[in-house]
Amino acid sequence: MSNAKAPLPNNPEGIDQDQFLTVLSREQALARFEAALFPRPVPAESQLLADALGRALAEDIVAPIDVPPFDRSNVDGFAVRSADLAMAGEATPVRLMLNDEVIACGTAPVRPVLSGTATSIATGGPVPRGADAIVMVEHTQPAGPRAIEIRRAASPGQFVSYAGSDIARGEALLRAGTVIGSREIGMLAACGISQVLVARAPRVAVISTGDELVQPGKPLRPAAIYDTNGAIVTAAVSENGGEAAFLGAVADDEEQLEAAMRKALAANDMLVLSGGTSKGAGDLSHRIIARLGKPGIIAHGVALKPGKPLCLAVCDGKPVVILPGFPTSAMFTFHDMIVPVLRRMAGLPPRSDARVNAKVPVRIASELGRTEFVMVSLVEGDSGLIAYPSGKGSGAITSFAQADGFLKIDALADQMPAGTEAEVTLFTPHVRVPDLVIVGSHCTGLDLVTAPLAHAGLVVRSIAVGSLGGLAAAKRGECDFAPIHLFDEKSDSYNTPYLADGLELVPGWRRMQGIVFRKRDRRFDGRSAQAAVRAALDDPACIMVNRNQGAGTRILIDRLLGDIRPDGYWNQPRSHNAVAAAVAQHRADWGMTIAPVAQAAGLGFIPFAEEHYDFALVTARKQRPAVQAFLKALASDEGRAALAGAGFRPA
């Protein structure tokens, strides 16, 4: 891999599009992309105030009138001459006669305030001729049907807002480039401005590519996946000042895809595709770009993780972006590399992302030579924020949606050591630390118990790291509970032997672990777990699916296998659902999961051991309100009934 500067592709026809161009650093790729696009004029259009929200002003706005346009009262009371009240006091009240009019909002005064008189006036009413102060109604007393007494002096200008005191005619109200929010709309409306000239939102066409894509709402055929990138990218374009048009998914047909890309470019200012940037046989998008306009591809291959296959191009002045197909890769590269360009085209300022410092509790391995972005979930530790990395990979959409932010590992580093204080860029302006933190082994029953807490407004953060990882987090004081299901052969018991000082066991529920297989498989049907495993081991064609190290299920599997390592042993997914999916989809013939998961997948199930899914509670956190709410939900009749209904046996 080289970070040397590569020439811009002036001759698209001569580019070998079947290979990555020279892999560029993030900074090089972004600089070249922007250099090929800018400077450029930002088109403007007139918009009604209601439609201008979030847009950038294209010109300075000068106030056409004074605001307020007249002297007005700030309180309910009486318009007076301050000189009449110069000697007023508790012992020397001043009596004023009331004029025969009441000045309300929107009512122009008719009668002047002469010496010795006052006029009733409402908040916002125009101050009448002759008056120079307002006395609050609370500071007066009736003195007959048409008079009042005042026992305190009034200074000139008291409770009066003068014309132009808020905004003066001819004053620069807003500058070009200002992003219009609710406050700006209020200022414009106060000046009587109903339309403004704003930067036109760039029209951005979004196309997903791939034979495997199915649009949400339609049946999912075998080996197909729902198109998530189309919806995500379309929303992200709108969030960052673009006018997005999702044109659907196009199959891996070069002629069809080229026609769709040409049509999209002709009608829009920018084209964003997802998929088709890697070197699979069906990846066509990057080859088509060379025929769409000059200069063509600017960067194809960026030293980012996730996001290396990113392709940046400019075709006759219009940006064309091909994002990686995996959702997390697509979103990281879009926000990091495309958003700056999109916002600049929309006349908007760069994003101002909030950042916090947090400690990373575990070592994060990284690939030397690529800047890596790692999504993290934030929890409150004993001495500050803790940033737990997400391990779901670049294909996981939930890792992006559920994370609080991300941290950056420099291209020159091959790891981030445990205990590192790192800067976390937040996905939202503020981070809300969760009320309850659960770190350890995940179970669908956990969602049932925490549902009442979430409905009550508590933020529950559950991080799946396995039983042993959860215990380690609990010992470090990084969570409230660590769900565990660890069998100790020496004591022939679950979980209690693994507790350390400062932890106590809270019984959870029992769940049946067993062998999962496809129904009517004679190697397993009607056998005990031990006999089924022996039959599987006797068949060289029989493939297993394992579980990850640190999982309680892995301990049970190893008890069954002893020292034998059959085909599939090193296939180690991190969840029960993944095991069931591997068997159901014929990628494996057997594995170990829990009964509710096997039943939901329509698979055969041989019971092996009822394991104890319990909670290691950090004693020092026991009295926290959210912890008490969890304990109450766990022990409630409703919680126990929900667990039983899902196939678990409450302890």
Describe this structure in words.
There is one protein chain. The chain is of the alpha+beta class. It has 15 helices and 37 strands. A 6-stranded mixed β-sheet has the order 7-4-6-5-9-8, with no helix packed on it. A 6-stranded mixed β-sheet has the order 16-13-17-21-20-18, sandwiched between helices. Strands 19, 22, 24, 25, 26 and 28 form a 6-stranded mixed β-sheet that branches. α3 packs parallel to α6 (327-345) and α8 packs across α14 (625-635). The two termini are 56 Å apart. The model is unreliable at 1-20 and 277-282 (pLDDT under 50).
Biggest sheet statistics: 6 strands, mixed
Name the average pLDDT: 89
Low-confidence stretches: 1-20, 277-282
Distance between the termini: 56 Å
Structural class: alpha+beta
Radius of gyration: 35 Å
- Fraction of residues in β-strands: 25-35%
Order of strands in the sheet with most strands = 7-4-6-5-9-8
Q: Number of helix segments?
A: 15
Count the beta strands.
Answer: 37
Coarse morphology = extended
Tell me roughly what share of residues is in helical segments.
10-25%
GO molecular function: metal ion binding; molybdopterin molybdotransferase activity
Domain MoaB/Mog: 205-344
Enzyme class: transferase
EC number: 2.10.1.1
